[in-house]
Specification:
Protein name: Carboxylic ester hydrolase
Strand content: 5-15%
GO molecular function, one term: acetylcholinesterase activity
Family: Belongs to the type-B carboxylesterase/lipase family.
Organism: Caerostris extrusa (Bark spider)
Number of helices: 11
GO biological process, one term: choline metabolic process
Strand order of the largest sheet: 1-2-3-4
Oligomer: single chain
Length: 300
């Protein structure tokens, strides 16, 4: 598993998914106010299936160009009868196998750049400086669904100098990545390990999908458009092979040499495709202090 878990989904997204589906179907003339996907699912879905997939993807994007996702996991049907968050919290895992799980460094930078293109440009191309008041307003939005959002704003901003614009921005995208990707991955790993399952945690120092050369945005926004297949310091193929091999063989391969991860021993292994960096270097966490601050929101 990589970059997130079902723990992020505190609510059932069945109704929101239906609403998005209805908007999409109306936009391509497969539905109307009198012919909805809820009232006529076979007809509307049948019409959607006849559309070109690329065209549907474009229309779906046009409904909300700054959104990073349109549909989210739902439950309450034959496929997923239970809320996955409850199952994870209660340890209701079946067919337990060794788990390789992890996240990417600076992944939150992708979120704030794509959702604020007027400020940051295409994937952060404008590369602007932001001051603390603006950063705090962004953090309030990021934590808007949390009890006492100001508490988390203070946590990420306290002690940050007013003129350290790189750190100010880093704290914003770190917070976004913590709540969307990293910490919910950590909580899943902890819960799985608590049931006497073997867990191996990795932290990718070079993201699988990175953006163009803007060092102020961290490793996840470093190379999207400057990517060169001849550049041996950047090879996502290596990471894909590691994850693919783990899935195929049902064991974590090279990670068996590393320590098992648990809440009591949150030790992970770094992955980096740059041969000058020690790929076997171990760390603790990752972002353990941050994840401990926000874990009560998720009930872990």
């Amino acid at each position: 598993m990589e970059s997130g878990s079902a723990i992020l989904m505190n609510n059932n997204y069945l109704q929101p998914n239906l609403q998005v589906s209805q908007r999409l179907a109306k936009a391509v003339e497969c539905a109307s106010d009198d012919n909805t996907i809820e009232d006529n699912p076979d007809g509307v879905v049948g019409c959607l299936r006849e559309q070109n997939a690329t065209y549907l993807a474009y229309v779906l994007w046009s409904l909300d160009p700054t959104s990073i996702a349109a549909f989210f996991p739902q439950y309450g049907d034959e496929l997923l009868p239970n809320n996955a968050v409850d199952d994870i919290r209660e340890g209701s895992f079946t067919n337990a196998v060794p788990l390789l799980i992890g996240s990417n460094k600076d992944e939150g930078s992708f979120l704030i750049t794509t959702q604020n293109p007027e400020i940051f440009g295409f994937f952060g191309y404008k590369d602007p400086e932001i001051n603390k008041p603006y950063a705090e307003s962004m953090l309030l939005k990021i934590f808007s669904n949390f009890t006492d959002p100001q508490k988390y704003v203070n946590y990420y901003m306290d002690g940050v100098p007013d003129d350290d614009y790189d750190l100010i921005r880093r704290q914003v995208y770190t917070a976004a990545g913590d709540i969307m990707f990293l910490c919910v991955t950590v909580y899943f790993a902890e819960s799985y390990a608590e049931r006497n399952n073997d867990v191996y945690f990795y932290f990718s120092l070079t993201a699988l999908v990175t953006l163009h050369g803007r060092p102020g945005w961290g490793s996840h926004t470093s190379k999207k458009f400057n990517l060169c297949l001849e550049d041996h310091t950047y090879s996502p193929i290596l990471i894909v092979k590691i994850l693919g091999s783990s899935s195929e063989t049902r064991h974590p391969g090279m990670f068996l040499k590393g320590p098992k991860y648990s809440k009591a021993n949150p030790t992970y292994m770094n992955i980096d495709v740059n041969p000058s960096i020690n790929r076997a270097k171990l760390g603790t966490g990752p972002h353990l202090e941050n994840c401990n601050v926000i874990r009560s929101h998720y009930g872990f």
